[in-house]
Amino acid sequence: MKNEKFNELLSTMGKCTRCLNIKSSNEKDCSLINIYKDQDFCRNIPSIWTDWFNRLDSKIMVIGQDWGPYNDMKRLYELYSEDSNGNNWKCLIEQEKSNTKKLLDYYIKESSNNNYSLDDLFITNAIMCARKGNNYRGDNINLKKSTNNCSEYLMNQIDIVHPDVILTLGYYPLLSLSQIYNFKIEKNLKDTISIYPEISIKNFVIIPLYHPVAQIKKSEQLEQYKRIWKYID
After folding, report:
1. For the segment 201-232, what is each residue's pLDDT rounded down to a tens digit?
2. CATH code for the part of the protein at 2-231
3. I need a surface site. Which of 39, 61, 95, 155 has the fewest CB within 10 A?
4. SS in 3 state form for the chain?
5. What is the pTM of this model?
6. How high is the pLDDT of residue 138?
7. Alpha-carbon distance 89 to 81, whole Å?
8. Burial of 52 (0-12, 13-18, 19+ CB in 10 A)
9. CA-to-CA distance for 174 and 9, rounded, in angstroms?
């Protein structure tokens, strides 16, 4: 049932045009690439961020900011197309070397005493389309507008997965959830984490986190991750 619902959601997202013609106030191109127009493409990108169908029963959902450059996703898709079997899918995911992945894996394992790993998480983003170009940290994206444009699809993912705990990495994923579920957050992430370290909504709990690569002490970040496990049986 979850697979069918997620398939339907990907098809719906393939028809979306909300972020395809965005410009900044100085007319800079901030439009994104809809990776769901090609349904074969979006289902066959071997990454922890797009390994959707193997993680639909996860009790923990992680929401990052955005996918990053389309070219990175295309490269992974092509590598998997050369050898499209389950072992290669897993192998390519294991080869992913980003600092975000390494640190997220560290915090999950360390905080759970190695009882959980990235394999146990459903991982997605607040912004569903991919950036143009090759630069993840460039100004070629309108974070607030694209976050708002994608909030409906994020809510649909939450409804399908039905997690017990949601972890938000950085400010914009938390902003999206605050607008979806109508709860208050502060104007910056530091104050929000301090005042609202755990936010109960419906049948799940939101734990706001700094992005793993943020210049925050590991010990401080780790304390936030330890909050997860009292909600997980």
Report:
1. 989 999 999 999 988 999 999 999 999 999 99
2. 3.40.470.10
3. 95
4. CHHHHHHHHHHHHCCCCCCCCCECCCCCECCCECCCCCHHHHHCCCCCCCCHHHCCCCCEEEEEEECCEHHHHHHHHHHHHCCCCHHHHHHHHHHCCCHHHHHHHHHHHHHCCCCCCHHHEEEEEEECCEECCCCCCCCCCCHHHHHHHHHHHHHHHHHHHCCCEEEEECHHHHHHHHHHHCCCCCCCHHHHHHHCCCEEECCEEEEEECCCCCCCCHHHHHHHHHHHHHHCC
5. 0.94
6. 63
7. 10
8. buried
9. 22
What residues are paired with 33 via a beta bridge?
130
Give me the amino acid identity at 59. Answer: K
Which burial class, exposed, middle or buried, applies to 169 when counting CB atoms under 10 A from its CB (0-12, 13-18, 19+)?
buried
